[in-house]
Amino acid sequence: MRTTRRELLRRGWKLGGTLLAAAAGWTTYESLRPLASAASGATINLGDPSTYQPETATYISQGRLFVAHTGTELYALSQKCPHLGCRVPFCDSSGRFECPCHGSKYDLGGEWVEGPAPRGMDRYALKVDAGKLIVDTSKVITGPSRGANRFLKPAKGPSCAPKA
Amino acid sequence: MTDIETPPSPGDGPLSEGSSESPPTRDGLEPKVAYAPGAGVAARVERSNVWRSMFRHPTIDTPRGRALQSFSNFFLHLYPVKIPKRVLRMRYSFRLGFIVTVLFAILVLTGVYLMFFYTPAVGSAYGDMQQLKTGVGFGQLVRNVHRWSAHLMVLAVVLHLVRTFFAGAYKKPREFNWVIGVVLLMLTLGLSFTGYLLPWDQLSYWAVTVGTNLVHYVPLLGGTIQNVLIGGDQIGQNTLQRFYALHVAVLPVLVVLTVCIHIWRVRKDGFAVERSSVGSPVADASTGTFEEEATTHPAPAVPATAPTHLYGGRTRILGVVDRQSVTAEERAVDDTVFTWPHLLVRHVVVALGVAATVLALGVAFAAPLRGLANPNLTPEPAKAPWYFAGLQELLSHFDPLVAGILVPAGGILALVLLPYIDRNPSTVARRRKVAIVVFSGLFAIAVVLTVIGTFFRGPGWRFVTPWTHWYVEL
């Protein structure tokens, strides 16, 4: 069937409107999308790796992360709970990370132990450069799945969460 | 709305009724002498050209005069000129829709006041809150009223939705207005949530942290949506600025626009028929639908294309539907009353009641302000705002994909599709048992989860009783 001029114009308007809406949506997204520099952190020099003692977690405020030494490996763990984003402090008495919001617990390697969190704590890329430990906070490595249990040990002592 | 009334109601008088200065005009639409007589200042002002350029019609206490005033007054024109008498009864709707509108108006007024003293900057927002408390006249009270109005608005919108469901008022022809109502519920939650962050204290920071992290569980796009929403990977200046813009500009404009459409459609779709009218002479008792009001008067000669059964009595043509039929509503001659003053007086009373309530709450209970937001110190417990506490409670029991996405998204989708899924035309409770049982059950679960999450959870999300430890801040 031949397309009439009116039909052609109608289709043109529809196509133009769709393209315009798509362009508006895209530009809005591009405007609101955080830039990489704003969304992620910088590279931080953590110093000599030997300064981090086995079975300890050291808080690095500059990067809002913990450097955890499991005895065999070093990890830079994000302080953000993968459940709902609360800050997860390290509990010295139990030797675990314990989220105060919803009770998720993680072992020294940031692996999930219990609670509603869907996985272990996220990590940042670590490397040793010229004898210095360097963490790149722009590179987030998703935490290990539940049940990884590579570093799971019984709790050293009582939990830090206050009794309700 | 175009109202065509034929024939005119008995008792309608000419506009110049009561005036001795001039005979009535031909059709009563051009009153020339009905303005206040006399030589007093007020009368002179009312007769002046300036006054008449603003108020085209004088106050005339006749049915036609009231109708004319309604037509020519912007605010009165939001209402229909006449309404069914049953609408006046409190239990017809409990005025919940109107209460929501009043609360929104209070929020706009108090919100604009607060804007004079607030800067959406991480460095100053918290200080502005403190300054509001100590250095601005009535600042704390206005903030309290704003806060309470926001909470009550969420509550009233939910109750409005529940009432509409139980009345069956979402059924044909109001399906789409129900959908608009669901959109308004979402916008209301968005307004309340974006405002939650603005004080920039520990309560707001962590409640919004928890709330925005719920979005993270959306498959594939969760992280991107969250990043766009908060303007980075954690709550900060970008978040505050975005939430402020959404809170004071984008969402209020959307709410006003959507409310206008919502109210307009209430008029266009007609007022819901309540169950008690099933006993009317022409009621369809088997269904209890809006056809209850159709009459069976013998039809006079009417245009061949028009629905003839509607032309027996007094007919108000409400609109013409494309190619299908004339949308009309028929009712007995005496079943309507003038909106002004009958409904307006009731609305004024309700509005005063709502204002008094939020004022009393504002005087009695101060809006909370904890310490300055600290990203390195999570309070125990960190709870989302109360209307998301049910979701947070659900997340502590189920997989995030289920509790964070499938349940809320499914709930919203089910609400949107409800009027299209529920094809049962009856509004009578005993004929829609399945719908009522399912809705009541789901609503009860949502309420129980919200109550548990709000009142019965303490540090580490452990179960606590509110009478031993109180971990609630609204």
Description:
The complex is a heterodimer of chains A (164) and B (474). Chain A is α+β, with helices and mostly antiparallel strands and 164 residues long. Chain A has 2 domains: 5-33; 39-141, 3-layer Sandwich (Rieske Iron-sulfur Protein). In chain A, a hairpin with a 4-residue loop joins strand 3 (65-69) and strand 4 (74-78). In chain A, the strands form 2 sheets. Chain A has a 6-stranded antiparallel β-sheet, with no helix packed on it. Chain A is built from 2 helices and 10 strands, in the order ααββββββββββ. Chain A has helices spanning 5-32, 36-39; strands at residues 43-47, 56-60, 65-69, 74-78, 90-91, 96-98, 105-106, 112-114, 123-129, 132-141. Chain B is mainly alpha-helical and 474 residues long. In chain B, the strands form 2 sheets. In chain B, strands 1-3-4 form a 3-stranded antiparallel β-sheet, with no helix packed on it. In chain B, strands 2-5 form a two-stranded antiparallel sheet. The two termini of chain B are 42 Å apart. Chain B folds into 3 domains: 5-78, no CATH class; 90-271 and 342-461, Cytochrome Bc1 Complex, Chain C (Up-down Bundle); 277-332, no CATH class. Chain B contains 15 helices and 5 strands. At the A-B interface, loops of A face helix 9 and helix 10 of B.
